[in-house]
Amino acid sequence: MLYPVTTPTRTVLDLSGLWRFMIEDENSPVDVTHPLPTHDDVAVPASFNDQSSQAKIRNHVGYVWYETTFNIADFLRTQRLVLRFGSATHEAWVYLNGQLMTHHKGGFTPFEVAINQALVAGENRLTVKLSNMLDYTSLPVAHYSETTDDAGHLVRHLDENFDFFNYAGLQRPVKIYTTPQSYVEDVAVVPTVDLTAHQATIQTRVTTQGDIDKVQVKLFDEDQQLVAKGSGKASQLTLTDVHLWQPLHAYLYTAQVTALRNDEVVDQYSEPFGVRKIEVTNGQFLFNGQPFYFKGFGKHEDTAIHGRGLNQPANVLDVNLMKKMGANSFRTSHYPYSEEMMRLCDRAGIVVIDEVPVVGLFESFGFDLNSTKQDQTWQVMQTATAHQQAIREMIGRDKNHACVAMWSLANEAANFEDGAYEYFKPLFDLARRLDPQQRPCTYTSIMQTTAKTDKCLSLVDVIALNRYYGWYVQTGDLKAAEKATRDELALYQRLYPNKPIMYTEYGADTIAGVHSNYGEPFSEEFQEDYYRMASRVFDDFENFVGEQLWNFADFQTKFGIQRVQGNKKGIFTRDREPKMVVRYLQRRWRAIPSLG
Ligand code: GCB
Questions:
Q1: In the CATH scheme, what is the code of domain 12-179?
Q2: Catalytic: which of 160, 482, 505, 528?
Q3: Cβ-proximal residues to 29 (8 Å cutoff; 6+ apart), any chain
């Protein structure tokens, strides 16, 4: 799916701004043929939760309604008009002038619908019903239950299988874009690099709709100079003296695709792309032929008041802070991030592990490493269909991004239980079939899954471990934690000598401003000691290809006795002030080259 951009044949209208908002009172159904019976406002894009002064709204489980009005300039009405949601969390029913236009489930990927048929003259009314409910068929996963209150009214409950706050709403931009009636539907760009010849072959695959008899492709460099051109829906162009897209040194070309009829331009679309080669071989993750070392973070889309809503200044700051620290990468834990963030990473040279919203695929959660208990996760969870859709939509959206170096197909599933391999095998096959760039695939493994019990390691290109020695286990005992970390990595390396291993989570809750002469847990001293311990171990393992700590910043969570206003494992506070450990990590990461 293409990101909406303006071109000589297309324009984009942004519906961001103030919308009407209400939570649904299930005893008085909404009549979509009339304006919503509310005068409350909500800003879009943003989560609705933290914009409200009322706990009842912030914590609402069920349906919410959004509404706005817009006009379309007469001169645009001959064009194909497409209404596009960057995301709608988690399930949406979209009505235009009272007519149901589309429905989409899955809260972190875009969807769109052509609206010409439903437009009226003058003001148009756009109404969206959203559900923030999750269950064992959805992604992410939560336990859903219902009770009734004293008045006999339905009360819905969610117990999420994850700790981040279940922010919801229209969290990403809502846009209307135009295309001509015949148009470019999709573009896939696949670079193949010959590193010794400094040359690349760029395959483009274009799909069109309507009356198009010719497709032209032109490639431009960063100075807008034409560097190659060709024609055909499937074209293969050669770039000589190629500028590589390197971690922290981005270089973006643009593929300009023109659709023609009788040699007249019908539609044009421009897609940025980078040229780089990613391989996993002999226990190494190679970027343009050189061993790459991931330095960075697991993150969240999470800022004050915006919640999980697009916050571009925060995204820019986060990338700037990463670069300052010498970090080069992050994982989109635990859902695909906004398209705006992906485009920013393309420009900034930040390497991304792109993760589907698959978190919490376990029936019961624990850190008992000696447990041999088998739940019925793979019978209880009915997520396979949603999982396939999430993979399709993530890869469909992000396939051309230079920044995406690997797909993560799950965070912390019950991979040690019977049925896990049978569940994951078709999903890995699907991802590999769908990705035109054939990127490596992985999942991040929960501590309960060990090198000996994980049933799915044969599926992954890179072993990605989420580990909390010294925090959730051996709490505060960094000596024991160091031994456990070392022993486990040694075992993985011995059993899987050809697979690169990385940490995709490790961390300790740390309250900014809390200090301890004794390096106690929760203090800034402990956090630094913890990371020093982990670094010492990492440096001793040859196949160890990266460290992505947990978490870039403190973030909001559901309520729980382990969470005081959220998860405090950030090395920055929620408003991006550094904790003490940042200086240590900055020194370390600046001294470790990304490549080489
Ligand atoms: C994990 C999860 C992450 C949590 C983290 C924690 O294993 O993947 O979503 O936030 O632990 O801090 O407990």
A1: 2.60.120.260
A2: 505
A3: none
